[in-house]
Amino acid sequence: MKKLITTLLALLLSFAVIAQEEELLEPEKAFALTVTALDADSVQARWDIAEGYYLYRSKFKFSSDTADVTLGEPSYPAGKIKHDEFFGDVETYRGSITITIPVERAAGAPDTFTITANSQGCADIGVCYPPQRQSREVTLASVPAASPLAALTSPDRGFLTGNSDGEILEPDQAFHFDAIVEEGNTILARWDITPGHYLYKDKFRFTLTDADGVTLGQPELPRGEEKDDEFFGRIEVYHNPIEVRLPLLRENLEPTEITLLVSYQGCADIGICYPPQKKSLSLALPEGSAVAATPQAAPVSAAAPAVPLSEQDQLAAALAGGNTAWTILLFFAAGLLLAFTPCVFPMIPILSSIIVGQGAAITTRKAFMLSLTYVLAMAATYTVAGIIAGLFGANLQAAFQNPWILTSFAAVFVALSFSMFGFFELQLPSALQSKLAEVSNKQQGGTLTGVAIMGLLSALIVGPCVAPPLMGALIYIGQTGDPLLGGAALFALSLGMGAPLVAIGTAGGKYLPHAGGWMDAVKAVFGVLLLAVAVWMLERILPAAVTMLLWALLLITSAVYMGAVDGVREGASGWRKLWKGLGLVLLLQGALMLTGLAAGNADPLQPLKGLGFGAGTAQPQHLNFKTIKSVADLEREVAAAAAAGRPVMLDFYADWCISCKEFEKYTFSQPQVIAALGDAVTLQADVTANDEHDQALLKRFSLIGPPGIIFYDTAGNELSAHRVVGFMPPEAFAAHVQRALPR
Q1: Strands 256-264 and 88-93
Q2: Domain map of the chain by residue range?
Q3: Which of 153, 160, 488, 587 places its Cα 20 to 30 Å from the Cα of 83?
């Protein structure tokens, strides 16, 4: 009891101190409430929540001050789970929340009444407000004269929910599903959709299992109704009962048993969406017809032509309907290809420096164990982060692109580099050198725990790249809610990315020279590579001119240590001359960078571009993007382009996205790409900050992070089959644009 009283007093004291310092907003400013009428039978309460504050879902209560006006069950959006010190695991809202509240009015009830909203929230600094009670006057539209038809169809009679209590239906009640077999060659899948609910046409997935010699043809989906969805854009939906014919391609004509797997997703008109539903149904097939056994004879509906899928959607479909073993092997092979991209390259000097740090004591077996530990930790981290992203839409890697985190990790690499050179005792005070030596030794000392930590951090910080195989696995996890197979695919993908690292690390342990001058030279090389990784990471947060200066200093300093400015004495070995020659090349490149930097250029690879040297006098070309920030910006620009009869390309970019910078430098600067997009409106969403507007824009397209390129046709419809995820070179991208936006 004494401890509880002490805690409460401490909380009250902290509240008083903070309030005196005017760090807390007044409740009305922290949680600004507006109430508006939607129609004659519902109102909408919206709280705009200040940054650093949140509201509890369980604390909302609504009441009316008029006896003839009563409020129904509010419709809440999904919040985020937070572990609260006092209330345990609770659902909270940040940014803004909109709650729809049904209104029931008796005959003769006034159109205007006062609604009272109770809420409670807290500030992130640890201070909670007392419960707030706010009242707002709202005027509803007049209720039309009652009629027998209106009595049957109005929302207050349960039309939206299928019952008279205003309760949300269970998914099986809202969308009753069954399937039957027709004549052995066709399955008829049927959904009875309760009024007030709808199913998305593009969310249907059909798969057969335990079906020896029987496969599915193209599903015959009926035409749906067009709907402007808040999250998915303009799509087709079904409000009424539907039937989907599934033609069977039969090699086995004998009577047999099969299992049909179906997934689908729908919503209620009141604004509540159900999670993806998965159903399994055993069906007995009678004797089949030889005519339907060939793909050519399989019926395909003209109303639902086969739609091409993007690469990531094809991979997601492979997970949903393919052979598991082959699918996992496919993702492993995709990981091998990703291993040779700039996202994985920086991990080579990180792992190699760990191996080199062992010195002459390293053995092939130990090098293999260290490499395998690093790769397994990296793979496990990618898998867990991917599952989180697929289930919750939270990009864990993006969160680690914080300037403080990147700077700290770069400092670790600098410390490791200095330890490679052996300069601690020469360059730093004894107290600081012992600390750095301690950190360095922990990472290089061969402990599997230290190597695993480095692998974990490398996965989160060094390579936050999004590629089609990764998006395919995330799409599958997000649509099915099944992290098991999706996680296995991500783990296989990560192992494929790490396989070359294991090979390089193990070979390094086998072929490292013995102690002596050679070992010192090898360690110095990896010391330079670690400094290069540190500069490469800082590129994401530093101005281009600063990073170019860092590259120039690194090259010039390395050249000096390689003897570029020293004379070559008579009788020097060929190796000494080779090192001096390479050093001169680095010295010259560093000097060119400084020259270009002084002239206002900031491209380390082309430091003299555009400075008046021959062909370089022409001004460099590049796509001109119009920057957007929010979903509202996007909708406005797409609508304007559609009104002008022009297509749209939307590019997602972030400073920490390596593939985005490849697009900027190598693809968007090429004449064939600029020509292919000559008629298009080119938009760019910079999601570097990863704030709520950025996340909402990414969520609109079910993207986890950049890069991502979205195309719209001249009518303002998204061309989802032509989405691009991951880097694409200019020739391939120009051809892709011509297919997506033919003139």
Answers
A1: unpaired
A2: 26-149, 171-306, 325-517, 626-740
A3: 488
Task: Say if pTM beats, i.e. exceeds, 0.70.
Answer: no
pLDDT in tens, 328-365: 888 888 888 877 777 777 787 777 777 776 666 677 78
Q: Report the distance separating Cα 665 and Cα 544, nearest Å.
A: 13
Tokens of 742: 């033919």
The reply to whether 626-740 shares the fold of 26-149 is no
pLDDT tens by residue, 58-116: 889 999 888 888 888 887 777 777 776 656 677 888 888 888 888 888 877 888 888 99
Q: Cβ(114)–Cβ(65) under 8 Å?
A: yes
Give the type of residue at 12.
L
Alpha carbons within 13 angstroms on the beta-carbon side of residue 318 total 22
β-sheet bridge partners, residue 43: 37, 101
Would you say 616 and 610 are in contact if contact means Cβ atoms under 8 Å apart?
yes
CA distance 112 to 606: 69
CB 158 within 8 A of CB 268: no
Residue 714: HSE in the Cβ half-sphere, 13 Å Cα cutoff: 8
Taking the CA atoms of the chain, what radius of gyration do you get in angstroms? 31
Q: Domain 26-149: give its CATH superfamily.
A: Thiol:disulfide interchange protein DsbD, N-terminal domain (2.60.40.1250)
Does CATH place domain 626-740 in 2.60.40.10? Answer: no
b (16+ CB within 10 A) / e for 325-351: eebbebbbebbeebbebebbebbbbbb
H helices then E strands: how many in the chain? 23, 26
* CB atoms closer than 10 angstroms to residue 178: 11
Question: What pairs with residue 258 in β-bridges?
Answer: 283
Could you count the other beta carbons within 10 Å of the beta carbon of residue 71?
18
Region of residue 690 (left: phi > 0; alpha: psi -120 to 50; beta: else): left
Q: What is the 3 state secondary structure string of 22-53? A: CCCCCHHHHEEEEEEEEECCEEEEEEEECCCE
Q: Name the residue among 151, 156, 153, 199 with its Cα closest to residue 175.
A: 199
Determine the CATH number of domain 171-306. Answer: 2.60.40.1250
Place of tokens 């164990």: 369
Q: What is the DSSP string of 239-290?
A: -S-EEEEEEEEES--S-EEEEEEEEE-EEETTS-BPPPEEEEEEEEE-PPPS
